[in-house]
Fold each of these.
Amino acid sequence: MNNIFRTSFFFALILGAIACNKRLDNYDLEYSGDKLVLFGNISNELGVTVYLTHTLPPTGTYYFDEISVEVTGATIVLSENDVAIDTLTELEPGTYFLSYSPVPGNSYSLSCEASGFETVYSTSVVFPEPIDLASVIFSSGFEDQNGDPACSVRPLFTDEVSNDNFYAFGFSFFIDDDFYVGNIYETPDADPLGCESGVFVFNNSFLKLYSDNCFSGTAFPFTFISNIVLHETEIIPFDRFEFSTCAISKELSDFVSNQSETSGINLLFSDPKLNYTNITNGFGVFWAQNDTTFVYHF
Amino acid sequence: MSVVKIISTLFLCVCSILSNAQVILSGYVNDETSSSVLIGAVVRSCENTYGTTTDEFGYFKLIVDSLPVCIKVSYIGFETKTLTITSNTKLNIALKGIELDAVTVLGSSQNPDEHINVTNIDVEKLKVIPSLTGEPDLMKALAIAPGISLAQEGSSVLVVRGGNPEQNLILFDGISIFNPNHLFGFFSAFNPSAIGNIKVYKGDFPAEYGGRLSSVIDITTKEGPKKGYVNNEFTIGTLSSNIYSEGPLSKDKSSYAIGGRVSYLGLVLLPQQLIVKSNESGTYTNYWLYDVNANVNTNVGEKGKLKFSFFHNNDYFTQYDQVNDDVSKIAFNWGNTAAGVLYRLPVNDTTFLTAKINFSAFRFNAALENTNAVELTENVYADNSTIKNINASVGFERQITKRYILSYGASADIIFIKPNSINFNAYLDGNLVSSLDTFSNNNISLVPWVYLDNEVFLKPTLKLHLGGRAGCFTNSGYAEWLLEPRIGFSIIPNDFTAWNFALTKMHQSYHYLSLNSSTLPNEIWIPATDQAPVETASQFSVGWFKNFSKIKLKVTAEAYYKNMSNLVAFVPGQASLFNTANNWSERIVNYGLGTAYGFELFVEKDLNRLNLTFEYTYGSSERRFDGINNDLYYPSKYDITHDLGLTAGLVLSDKWSLQTLFVYQTGRPVTLPSAVFIDPGGLPSYIYDEINANRLPDYHRLDVSFIREKQLSIYKFSKWTFGVYNVYARSNPMYLELNYSGLPQNAYPPLGYESYITQQTVFKFVPFISYNLKF
């Protein structure tokens, strides 16, 4: 009988050790073809900015200096309430800009023609009213959970739940005029209702998005921020921090929620979701953003 | 005029059927040595022109034209007995056991039409099919039948004719079991030593069965001997040990059978747990499981029989991860508890009464704990789901004439469902700072049913099965009438050939939520409501059976088409567990549709020492939900286009035999991206534009096992099983993963990235061994 136990134990060990992972280089994952990807934003502070790229096959190796994902020479036209306003200018490959002051309540849309691609259109977005804030309390001079110097911001809201807004908090970290992504930690009692719908980086700003109905005349128990960022290979303090409270159009909220639901840990406990986009014939998102920005220097 | 003609013809037919002279033979078939009843024994006329099988109490009824009559009684592992019956008295037929070859599949003498829409494989044959751990797994072995496949690699969860696993009604001594699986579905919770008979209905369902859409898997446990000695059985395998005992309680009156299994997987994993706990760092996983089953059979009065049955299983899974001061722990625990009483009484020579009352419960508990020893924070999530069912039923079976059997009865189900009851507590320095307790409503549904089934031989070669069920589902103000016609028509030109055409409708009054993409445990049952009405399925099937008896070859070919409606699925992207944001009713997509169709072929060839079976199924299964896949149909995750199975059993000597199983399947559908773009943050972002548009690589493997059986003494019998699962080490994928990494490695920001697919293979060349001792 001892032999039986010994043999069974041996086989059980083998069973635990047999699982293996294998890379499938020959797996035929069908590519849906090159399509335009448009990230466009219309903002009261920054005008209209469009970042235009194209899709790539889902598997492969890509070095940014070897492939050109930016789409140049495109004609992008902004319309307000279905009336064409102006054409965006290409500032650098793939980045298009138009200086324009949007009006809350008006709707805006883009059309984009680029050689070799199907013309894409955004569905119109309505420019939102700014968020009502009582104040933003900023403090510094303490340490974060890793013992690094930290600061915190605490916005106090006055808007009502019934206003049906979508929010983002923008964090921009600068050393001289170069933008960096910094560390943001939420305090343990932050976001008790799970309102955060995701994060998004665009146009030198790191946005944390929140769904509607989370703030109603209350202070958001936000957050502390490490005073340091990774600068090339060094960790050094940043010298300027910009904090924005942004009213955003629903499109960005839907896009970011969708992105966070189709990636990462969510896939463990949920089914995949098809990508959200408001770009007809392409991918990406076009949204409106009404910012109120606070600048802090160190 | 034509209506009058039809009515007149029907009247004449009925008169003709009813007016036939007849003699009804009835009685029990049992084991001569132990008095145990033999379930599924065949009782036929000596000319092989008509016959019947014994039920779960070993009882049979056979109508003959006149006396005297010659009948033959046979059962696998027993000598066939030929009797000449001269008078119409109650029969008690005892069969004598013979030594059985491990690979022999005794030619079943069922009526030829009973091979269509029904899988009735001998349990003894299923027990020798090679299995993953060496221990017989009868549910898994059922997948060698056409139209039945496993939900995934290594799983014992069955998928029947393009349906979902939860659409199978699994009956254990008549008690519905919700999820009879261990180890995330990798092996069945039914103890193979305890099982006496398994019958799977895929279509043409008898009207007494209902409640699920796709199949009925009717499992009957063995009855212990009512006289003689106690029989014990002990099995030790790669993953678990099993002990089983049966014997008389009171001579010729009552018997017991009890069995249990426990896995030592937990013991194997325990050292890692101790190391992590002592180092206060690292990751461990642990797993404990067990199951218990028991029954007591007793005679009540001269004719009545009573059977008490009990079943219980439990699985505990824990994963612990400690990095510095952060500890996370996730735990899953699930299992069934079921008990029931079944009473059968021959009211007279032509009428049989069956009454049942039973209880079944399934629970699924998930817990997630995150603690930080420095910040003194502790977040604890608990997500509990339960379903309980109380069922009472009474049914009668009446042999009206030789050619007409009438069955009728009534039942009632009370279903208690508590889905996704979520509790969240956040602590800071031991003090509760936040708490949430949601969705703990206990939902109660009531479903009373009546059924009527007519089985009529319009002519000796034409059999009509006409019946149906009618019921009413009520739940919190929502009520729905449920009507299920069951129509079958068989042409039996001779004793070796049959055609069958069947049209059935089924309802399922509770939904099951499972993930399309994940193999993680996720067991949430929800009741039908006005927003998510009772699921329905209609199925049309046609089948042909031919027994080429001269060359010992049997062929069954079947085709089916199934429509399903009111299916339910998770909203894509919504977390199924630990989701405090929404009530479950806000996380489902309802009114889903499904279609499935296919063709099945089964061939069995007996060459004395060699037995071969070949199974092939061509199938298609699709689903459609508003809001999923742009509202278009997409392949179900159980859509298997080609499914092929080949078994071969060879007797090598008196002691040794060889069993092989080859399986081939088209890869299962998976959702993978069709493109990628670089988002403004510089990270690749994948585009998913179609659900289940890709497939896993095709699946195939060969299993081989050698069986050595030895009679150690009169009452002692041993069996060794040695073998290898996936003998040519095919890397079959359990699932695919999309990976990406920045380039070059560890560079920040990355200068590029690499994106590639990996497959996870779990069972690649798995040797197994098991030892079974009967004493």
Note: Chain A has a mean pLDDT of 79.
Amino acid sequence: MSEAEFEGIVESRWSGGASPFAINSKKLGMWLFIVSDSLTFSALLISYAYVRLETPNWPRPFEIWPAIAKSSFMTFVLLSSSLTMVLGVNAAFKGDRKKTVRYLIATIICGIAFVAIHATEWVTLFGEGVTPWGNPWGVPLFGGTFFGLTGLHMLHVTIGVAYLAIIAWGFGKGKYTAEHVEVSGLYWHFVDLVWMFIFPMVYLLSVNPK
Amino acid sequence: MSAHGHAELSHEHSVGTTRLFSIVWVWLLLLTAVEVFLAYERLEVHLMITILVGLSLIKAALIMSYFMHLRFERLGLFLLLVPAMVFCICMMLIMFFPDSIRLMNLRPH
């Protein structure tokens, strides 16, 4: 390799120019947001793990039906929505607007189903007297951490559904580009990723072992 | 330079087929099933949380590399995002656990 060639490679890799990571600014912005948001969730999950491990009489109220069956199904729904999302992004880059919008709508429906099932789960718990401030088992932190973690996650899912609806509408009209769809996809996958931690830590560590 | 960048931008998205994404999806479902199965094994809680978080980290890595396309991006983007994130989370863990456990022990019984 001549020195000029070597210089050329070094320059293309490190000088950056207009686009050092070969991605657009929206995508870089979303990635940076995701990193900061992941730290918010990490802080909450780490403090939850501490509280969970240091409380010997932590309640284990979740039966197979409804809590574990429902939350496993919710995990399935959210994972499937990630699959439809990624296929939507692929369709968007192929320029197939109709297919993209259809995939995005499937993703939105999964998101709404997730929030709806989770809401019934909350209502059941309220019915059992579990609130963010107290519960029949005398460990108020159980409700505080459960509703705090799942509530913040539900808020993310709700915002994600609204975000995807706007993107689907705008992309169908030709207002947005495939990059917009991809960036909204990054957010959606992140919401899915966070649930992959919340589901085992909140639900599976509190199953009723019977 | 800019032409080179554009060429990379346009073909980066041809990677990743429906088949590949479906396989990743199946793996994620399988790992979830393993987690649910493990929840009913009577393991000690510290061991359980370690196994569950370990499996979840694998799932997170799968989602980030395939669904979020990080595998198909330049290495530079990965190096920008992931080490910083891992470092911050490790700092939280290192700062948080020893101090809070010490505080627990200082509490009047």
Note: The radius of gyration of chain B is 20 Å.
Amino acid sequence: MRNEPKERIALDAMKAWKITAHLVTVIAILFAIAALVIAYYVEFIPYWIGIILLVASIILWVVSAWIIPKLRWRRWRYEIFDQEIYIQHGILIVTRTIVPMLRVQHVDTKQGPILKKYGLSTLQISTAATTHEIPALLEEEASDLRDQISELARVEQDDV
Amino acid sequence: MSNPKRLHPAAMIFSVIHSIKTSIFSLLPIVILAIGEAKWIYVVIAAGALVTIIIISSILSWLRYTYQLEEDQIRIEQGVLIRKKRTISKHRIQSIDLSQNIIHRIFGLTKVQIETAGNDHKIDATLHAVTMDEGKMVHDQLKYNQVPKDIEVDTNEHPEDEKKHPSRKITPKALIIAGSTSGSFGVILGLIGLGFSEIESIIPDRYYNHATDWVFSQAIQILILLAIVALIILWLLGILVTLIQYWDFTITRYEKELFITRGLLEKKQSTIPLKRIQAVGVVETIIHQPLGLAKIYVDIASGEMGSDSEMHTVLFPLIRKSEVQNFLRELLPEYEYNIDQWISLPKRALPYYLFRLAILPLIVTIVFYFTLTDWAYIPLIVTILACLLAYFQYKTIGYEIKGEHLFIRNRDLSKDTIIVKHRRLQAMKKKQHFIQKKQNLASLDTAILNKFLGRHFIVRDLEQEDVDKISDWYSYQKNRSNI
């Protein structure tokens, strides 16, 4: 039985996920309000649709902004070995992934506005057939890892 | 070294046909609009002009298209307004295939497709029409190693060659069986379904004995008869298509590649470099399995995108299950297998399989039971079938590791045995949800490259130890720091 990977992702990841959750909730609530407004003007559309939407978005808000980020962060781990990358994630379904360096085709870092605010960025590792992500690493760490992986992956590759 | 050469003039015919075919599709809506407004005279003029333009441009592009064989490369120049020159080095060429459709065969010509290792299929080259001799000459000149020098379209011309290179050919009888059983599975299902619906249409007759209803049901029966006839015709067509596609299917093993010729109307050659094979699979559909038959295929990296919507490349359309091992030993010893004992799923996994497949029909059955009680038996039958399938999945699924090979036996509906080499697996995942964790089960998800995309092999609810064992086998990090 193999142990968990050692490294954790940045603590600020939780904050970033929280903000994303807030934004999603705002959109969901806007939809709910729209449904209520329509129900006010259009006779045959009942109010309860809007009310259900509103309740659902508030539940979504609580779960996605306060519960999920913590659990998710706690589970997220990774470790970079000489020969392979080892990733663990998932709250209900725990997934452990092995990506051999030999199979890595390219490595990207990417950063959206929310991650940028916290100085984080996401590392994306592509093989010929699959893509893997390590989200929310510190900017420097991510770019170091990117260079490190591309260095390690720079081995003579036979056909794919 | 040779001088620049043009294609055979018949290439113009191909280019005209091709352009007309593509333009018809894009212009059809406009044409229909114009005819709708009774302006067909303009349509005729426009069509005439278009055809003239297409013919002129085909002639021009034929005139401007030249190819030239040099010592270890082929140089192609083309383009009317924009001149393009392309040089393909012999060493970069993966395969050269000759194929002939009906027009080619009338003129004694062949199409030459040159495929390179690049992922961008646009850099591959195609000579649309050259004479047969010329095609063979190009083929022999550019072949990276001259070993399979005497590849002929018809391998039978060289009996002494076949001894050196193992080869297999399909019999017409096997093809007819393949055609009548494999592709037409849906049709057979449809026939069974119709059988059911006929029974249903007979049952209500007892309750409604009015004359009008009788006439009405007569009509339905005639309709059903027609539908059955139509299905049988479809089925025969299916057989015909298989015959045309795979007629004379011959596979030959050369040192570094597999070579396939097939086709009745259009003779097709294809070359599969061994380097590109990502996995070998043996499929037994639920019709084939009881008959002890199977189909062998390979997954290859890249290949002609778009021209062939098939996910896999068929190595042999139909073969006895007992012959598969011999076939692989002869033609593809790299993937030979001989497994008596598969490591299968633990008993604890069965409920998961039952749940996954049967839960939806079960819910539908319950809903039907309370609403449309008379019809509840239909979802009930589906539920029972789903349970059966789940049981067979549970029975079938298994794996085995031998040296650098991983063997996976899987089933959606058809039984699929996959052989894949360690270095072809792109990544490996172990997935475990919290209930699985309690029961020490886990799922495995691994992927290979197939036509620029990934193909995932997912084995659910294996013993956790087994998944860990496979992960350890897969891991490149043999001396891990954290053990």
Note: The interface with chain A takes residues 117, 275-276, 278, 301, 423-434, 437, 445, 447-450, 453-455, 465, 468, 471-472, 474-477, 480-483 of chain B (CB under 8 Å).
